[in-house]
């Protein structure tokens, strides 16, 4: 497995869905003046590879600090290098693979015997390669035969996915290449903060900013909102939880002022008339009283957007949604409102304009296509579709009848753990639910109630530390595979170095578990072979990868065309290779009649809204230096130094009112719990809103107090808004849970 | 699946409130009701609030059509009005002669324009008869006629300076007409604005091209050949000034349509008298909502109030269904349709309604309608909003504290009224951002700042101006956000030998993320080249680690 020739390897950043192109040169660290990855590997390990950015369409040669320092994660001192099994003394101790897998096999068998196959559940992650995600879904359905598999993408992509599927018949985050944004006159960013979450993305906003057309909807004047300053665009700053009202009002203005693209609506959509009526009640002045955005700002924005639409002679407009509007109990409806607006202006399925959602996790796109989702089979097929079951069962060599039906979605799954009738054993792959799931104190209770918790990770995350068995797995530069970026571009992840100690790929350990559990289903462990099987399983599905292979992706990249966009079906005999589909929907939508479906939606408001004893909104988000639960980035000293601890942004008026000074400890209480953090006074937040980033465990772990109310359609939790009270923390006193336990 | 016969509901009035009620009922439980709607106008329900925008040419008529509730349990009769109610037989007879039985009757008959009987507007018998060119602004037909008339005439008079009058005057002025607004009060919108705010608004209207005649009434509408040709103002007696205009818009208030109720023997005053539960005190099966109703809290004629009443009444009618279902259930086998709040899902309808019924007693006494009384004028750049405690007040209310910003020269007036730590009223003219913030604070009851005077301005923190030259930039300023590079990092790498932006990028990674800081880094390099050559600035002091401060 290990490489001997120290030649640079083309791969991609391990973190977000932008999947910045980078080049890794295997260690030893060369030039002393290169700051990159100048952290040495622990003794006895391979030297760390050196990171350099490379030109790839999404990052155009840029990398943020996370990317530059990503190699550090390969060599963190507390890397898990052997399987760990919790002993009689209650401590996790090193074990052999044989011992660990025996414990799991026995545990699974015993749970299955007592509680049936649904007693074992699986929780996956959007950071896993396509090959791993696919294998995990196959393992759950054919070996465990449990319906209960879902993944953390439920927390980030499910509302946009549900809305996209409903309106377009397909969900590819961006159904166009990211570089298309550069030519647009207006880019409307809804609840997205790429300047913080995927910095190199900002390059693609330059064109819109030159035209004064960057429109940012965010209750906070975020780093991205600040890019719209000085005439480069518009920042709309609504009351948290009212994004949908802004969208309904924008569409109202489009209708009222005759700005809609009537020809496009007639030819390419259905449902327009009902949507028109549904926004009649949202004239800007009324919208203002709900969302707090001045009526004239709403009008100006709608006109600006419409003027950029192709039907009005503009140079193009894009509407993009992010977690800020999606992580809501009305997330699917809000995305639908964004889609309706885009369709009314004739933007979707046109070169140079469009609607997209900004996928968050590294493989958040691919991870939602190949069977980790509770209701899905590979190729973005529905698990309750008999034809889909038959096709996939055929590829897997099983009887379609043995495939389970839809299982519990993430929040319901976590809440059911260890309850009567709920799962008693859980496999967690690539997720740190103790920090990243909403209402996290409840998640801790539920995990404690399990008979068996198996966590596969490469660092001892907070969730791993609770496990009965921890399995050390390969990461990023230690494995081969594919990822699907936020554009729907399938790209190659390549191995540069070998994993330390006993760490193994999930592909191997799942195959081994399948064998030990007596399955006769074949589980290949070579990623290229797994991909070929995935491609066959996806054939004919919405996300059709059947014309792709590792070899083809490698050849395309060598030829200067990195990555291929799905759908990319296998050609019929005698036909040339399918070129992939950079732009979807140009001729028709993936709906039965080929038209985009417009669905009327209305505003309901947050489930946990402000009230007398909780009069302030809490919103959450990310900082540039950290990624998701922070399990990786908190272990990188260069990143941790800059943002070492959780904090809460308070408007000075709020700080003065509740008696929390700048820099003091603040206590924030919701109906679910309490957190404490350091207060930062800033006017980027509204006086009625407090903001906290969510990358930490312990006393400042904000997901301990976020809401686990879910969207009725997507089951996505309402992370982004809840009601809290804000008060000074008791002087000098720190919560007992306030230990980060991350090595220096 | 229903366990019972649907509740028969007759709704009289197919306007914004009547149709909203039906929509709310259908959303809750379509099969529980059998609904008949009688609508006097021949149109689908439309957004009456936007008629002034139609007049102003700011909205397409197509944009004001509201969703029309439909379904197998909803019968809509358009162009049909209710003629009489027989409460004993529980029937309504319509103008087409049909008779509709009901379990519950909802009157949502709205209101009609009030017309003062001055010469020119009444016929010989004293009956109101509007000559051609004179229009109230109440219905879609009115709006269409005004729009048509505005095309052919250069001058218009708007009579009545309330919210609708201000919107109509502003809108017609925006169409290029010479508009005269005649108002009996000292300043427009006297019901919502005190004299200071009113004078700021008056100035704004004048600046928009509206000629204002305050403290003035119209004594006569001049008619020639059956059409209006102008109005005579009451100022100066019988020979009052004449304003020539072939378009006269009457916005002198409204009168609730309570005739049907009165004829049915129900108590009426200004409107149909109802209790907090929106039911007539004379007949628990009859409800009134919207402009026609007169609840104990009074009526301001705002649609938000009517919609709030529709929502509350829908809750109540649904709870009656739930009660019947519960009663029916007791005599049948237990069923699995109680889902309690769990796992973040919504509780089942039965549970929600049960909770509602349980909590009803507490809310019956004083229904909370706050937040529905925000008056936001639709007049483009003239930003005017009033809510709660606002306008001229005769006396001080103990515990209330009002702070005011009066900035006449800039066309701005802001008043915030605070009690018990929350905003209980506000007026804002000429500052849309502050108006939006006040509205959010008022409707959500968020606690007010320590000093309520903060409410009068858009809150901003004092922040350093962007440094005019690199020299004045603090050392810990983050230059490259993507890579957390400060000015200090850059000067240090310069002193270590870096000489070009490329050298700086190699050493610090500045500019290698999104590239937005390239200009700043180049500027720093130029400054360093110049200042270090001069033997300028001494070595920097060791700074704190960089924070997240932005450039």
Automatic annotation (TrEMBL), chain A:
InterPro entries: Asp_de-COase-like_dom_sf, MoPterin_dinucl-bd_dom, Mopterin_OxRdtase, Mopterin_OxRdtase_4Fe-4S_dom, Prok_molybdopt-oxidoreductase
Keywords: 4Fe-4S, Iron, Iron-sulfur, Metal-binding, Oxidoreductase
Keyword Signal: no
GO molecular function: oxidoreductase activity
Top-level EC class: oxidoreductase
Domain of life, source organism: Bacteria
4Fe-4S Mo/W bis-MGD-type domain span: 9-69
Domain called Molybdopterin oxidoreductase: residue spans: 79-515
Database matches in CDD domains: MopB_CT_Fdh-Nap-like
EC assignment: 1.7.99.4
Pfam hit, one: Molydop_binding
Protein known as: Assimilatory nitrate reductase catalytic subunit
TrEMBL record, chain B:
Statement: the UniProt record of this protein carries the keyword Iron: yes
Cofactor: siroheme; [4Fe-4S] cluster
Domain BFD-like [2Fe-2S]-binding: residue ranges: 479-521
MF-aspect GO terms: oxidoreductase activity
Pathway: Nitrogen metabolism; nitrate reduction (assimilation)
One Pfam family, short name: Fer2_BFD
Domain FAD/NAD(P)-binding span(s) in chain numbering: 8-297
SUPFAM superfamilies linked to this entry: FAD/NAD(P)-binding domain
Highest taxon of the lineage: Bacteria
Enzyme Commission number(s) from the entry: 1.7.99.4
Root EC class: oxidoreductase
Transmembrane segments: none
Record's keyword terms, sorted: Heme, Iron, Iron-sulfur, Metal-binding, Oxidoreductase
Family: Belongs to the nitrite and sulfite reductase 4Fe-4S domain family.
Protein name: Assimilatory nitrate reductase electron transfer subunit
Organism: Isoptericola halotolerans
Upper lineage: Bacteria, Bacillati, Actinomycetota, Actinomycetes, Micrococcales
């Amino acid at each position: 497995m290990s490489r001997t020739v120290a030649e640079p390897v083309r791969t991609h950043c391990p973190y977000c869905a932008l999947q910045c192109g980078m080049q890794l040169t295997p260690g030893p660290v060369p030039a002393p003046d290169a700051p990159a990855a100048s952290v040495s590997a622990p003794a006895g390990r391979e030297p760390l590879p050196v990171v350099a950015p490379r030109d790839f369409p999404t990052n155009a040669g840029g990398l943020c600090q996370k990317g530059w320092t990503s190699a550090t994660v390969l060599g963190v001192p507390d890397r898990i290098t052997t399987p760990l099994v919790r002993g009689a003394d209650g401590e996790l101790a090193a074990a052999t693979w044989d011992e660990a897998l025996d414990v799991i096999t026995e545990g699974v068998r015993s749970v299955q015997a007592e509680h049936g196959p649904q007693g074992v559940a699986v929780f996956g992650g959007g950071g896993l390669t396509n090959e791993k995600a696919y294998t995990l879904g196959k393992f759950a359905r054919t070996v465990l035969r449990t319906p209960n598999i879902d993944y953390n993408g439920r927390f980030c992509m499910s509302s946009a996915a549900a809305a996209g599927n409903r309106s377009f018949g397909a969900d590819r985050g961006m159904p166009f290449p990211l570089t298309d944004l550069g030519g647009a006159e207006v880019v409307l960013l809804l609840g997205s903060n790429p300047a913080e979450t995927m910095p190199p993305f900002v390059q693609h906003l330059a064109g819109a900013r030159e035209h004064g057309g960057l429109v940012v909807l965010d209750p906070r004047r975020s780093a991205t909102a600040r890019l719209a300053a000085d005439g480069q665009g518009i920042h709309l700053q609504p009351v948290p939880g009212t994004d949908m009202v802004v969208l309904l009002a924008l569409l109202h203005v489009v209708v009222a002022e005759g700005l809609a693209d009537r020809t496009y609506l007639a030819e390419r959509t259905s449902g327009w008339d009902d949507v028109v009526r549904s926004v009649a009640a949202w004239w800007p002045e009324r919208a203002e009283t709900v969302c707090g955005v001045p009526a004239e700002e709403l009008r100006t924005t709608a006109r600006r957007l419409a003027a950029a639409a192709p039907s009005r002679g503009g140079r193009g407009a894009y509407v993009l949604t992010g977690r800020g509007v999606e992580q809501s109990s009305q997330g699917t409806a809000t995305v639908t409102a964004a889609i309706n607006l885009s369709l009314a202006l004739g933007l979707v399925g046109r070169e140079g304009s469009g609607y997209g959602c900004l996928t968050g996790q590294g493989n958040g796109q691919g991870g939602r296509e190949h069977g980790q989702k509770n209701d899905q089979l590979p190729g973005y097929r529905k698990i309750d579709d008999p034809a889909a079951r038959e096709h996939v069962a055929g590829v897997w060599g099983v009887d379609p009848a043995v495939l389970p039906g839809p299982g519990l979605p993430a929040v319901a799954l976590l809440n059911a753990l260890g309850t009567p009738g709920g799962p008693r054993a859980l496999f967690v792959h690539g997720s740190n639910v103790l920090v990243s799931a909403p209402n996290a104190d409840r998640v801790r209770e539920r995990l404690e109630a399990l008979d068996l918790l198996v966590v596969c990770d490469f660092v001892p995350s907070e969730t791993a530390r609770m496990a009965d068995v921890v399995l050390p797995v390969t990461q990023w530069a230690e494995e081969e595979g594919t990822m699907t970026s936020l554009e729907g571009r399938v790209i190659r992840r390549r191995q540069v170095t070998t994993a330390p100690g006993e760490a193994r790929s999930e592909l191997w350990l799942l195959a081994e578990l399948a064998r030990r559990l007596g399955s006769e289903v074949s589980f290949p462990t070579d990623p290229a072979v797994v991909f070929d099987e995935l491609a066959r399983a996806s054939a004919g599905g919405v996300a059709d990868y059947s014309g792709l292979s590792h070899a083809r992706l490698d050849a395309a990249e060598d030829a200067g065309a990195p990555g291929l966009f799905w759908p990319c079906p296998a050609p019929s005999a005698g036909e040339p290779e399918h070129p992939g589909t950079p732009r979807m929907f140009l001729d028709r939508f993936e709906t039965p009649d080929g038209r985009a479906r417009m669905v009327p939606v209305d505003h309901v408001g947050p489930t946990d809204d402000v009230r007398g004893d909780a009069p302030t909104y809490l919103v959450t988000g990310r900082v540039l230096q950290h990624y998701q639960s922070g399990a990786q980035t908190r272990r990188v000293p260069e990143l941790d130094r800059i943002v070492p601890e959780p904090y809460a942004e308070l408007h000075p008026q709020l700080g003065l009112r509740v008696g929390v000074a700048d820099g003091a400890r603040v206590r924030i209480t919701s109906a679910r719990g309490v957190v404490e953090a350091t207060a930062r006074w800033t006017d980027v937040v509204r006086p009625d809103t407090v903001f906290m980033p969510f990358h930490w465990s312990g006393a400042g772990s904000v997901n301990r107090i976020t809401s686990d109310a879910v969207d009725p359609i997507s089951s996505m939790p309402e992370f982004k808004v809840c009601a809290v009270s804000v008060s000074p923390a008791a002087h000098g006193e720190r919560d007992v849970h306030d230990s980060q336990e991350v090595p220096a | 699946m229903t366990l019972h016969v649907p509740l028969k509901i007759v709704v009289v009035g197919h306007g914004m409130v009547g149709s909203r009620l039906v929509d709310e009922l259908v959303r809750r439980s379509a099969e529980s009701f059998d609904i008949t709607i009688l609508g006097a106008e021949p149109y689908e329900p439309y957004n009456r609030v936007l008629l002034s925008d139609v007049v102003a040419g700011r909205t397409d008529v197509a944009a004001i059509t509201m969703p029309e509730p439909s379904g197998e349990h909803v019968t809509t009769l358009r162009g049909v009005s209710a003629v009489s109610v027989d409460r004993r037989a529980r029937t309504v007879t319509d103008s087409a002669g049909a008779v509709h039985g009901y379990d519950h009757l909802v009157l949502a008959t709205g209101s009609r324009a009030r017309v003062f009987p001055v010469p020119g507007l009444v016929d010989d018998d004293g009956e109101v008869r509007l000559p051609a060119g004179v229009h109230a602004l109440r219905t879609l037909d009115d709006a269409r006629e005004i729009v048509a008339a505005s095309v052919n005439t250069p001058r218009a008079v708007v009579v009545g300076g309330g919210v609708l009058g201000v919107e109509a005057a502003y809108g017609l002025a925006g169409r290029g007409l010479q508009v005269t607004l005649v108002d009996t009060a000292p300043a427009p919108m006297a019901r919502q604005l005190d004299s200071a705010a009113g004078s700021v608004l008056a100035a704004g209207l004048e600046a928009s091209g509206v000629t204002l005649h305050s403290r003035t009434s119209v004594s006569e509408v001049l008619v020639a050949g059956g059409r209006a040709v102008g109005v005579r103002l009451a100022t100066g007696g019988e020979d009052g000034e004449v304003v020539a205009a072939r378009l006269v818009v009457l916005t002198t208030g409204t009168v609730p349509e309570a005739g049907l109720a009165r004829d049915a023997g129900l108590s009426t005053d200004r409107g149909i008298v109802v209790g907090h539960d929106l039911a007539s005190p004379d007949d628990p099966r009859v409800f009134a909502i919207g402009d026609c109703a007169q609840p104990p809290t009074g009526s301001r004629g705002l649609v938000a109030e009517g919609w709030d009443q529709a929502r509350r009444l829908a809750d109540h009618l649904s709870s009656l269904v739930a009660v019947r279902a519960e009663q029916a259930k007791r005599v049948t086998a237990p069923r699995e349709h109680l889902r309690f709040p769990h796992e973040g899902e919504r509780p089942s309808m039965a549970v929600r309604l049960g909770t509602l019924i349980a909590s009803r007693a507490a809310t019956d006494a004083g229904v909370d309608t706050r937040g529905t009384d925000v008056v936001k004028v639709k007049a483009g750049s003239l930003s005017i909003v009033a809510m709660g405690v606002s306008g001229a007040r005769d006396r001080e209310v103990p515990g209330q504290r009002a702070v005011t910003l009066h900035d006449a020269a800039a066309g701005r007036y802001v008043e915030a009224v605070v009690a018990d730590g929350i905003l209980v009223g506000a007026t804002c003219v000429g500052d849309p951002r502050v108006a939006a913030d006040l509205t959010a604070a008022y409707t959500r009851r968020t606690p007010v700042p320590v000093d309520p005077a903060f409410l009068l301005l858009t809150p901003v923190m004092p922040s350093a101006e962007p440094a005019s030259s690199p020299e004045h930039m603090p050392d810990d300023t983050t230059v490259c956000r993507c890579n957390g590079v400060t000015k200090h990092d850059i000067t240090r790498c310069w002193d270590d030998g870096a000489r070009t932006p490329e050298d700086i990028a190699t050493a610090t990674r500045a500019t290698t993320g999104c590239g937005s800081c390239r200009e700043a880094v180049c500027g720093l390099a130029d400054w360093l080249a110049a200042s270090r050559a001069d033997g300028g600035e001494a070595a920097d002091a060791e700074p704190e680690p960089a924070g997240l401060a932005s450039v």
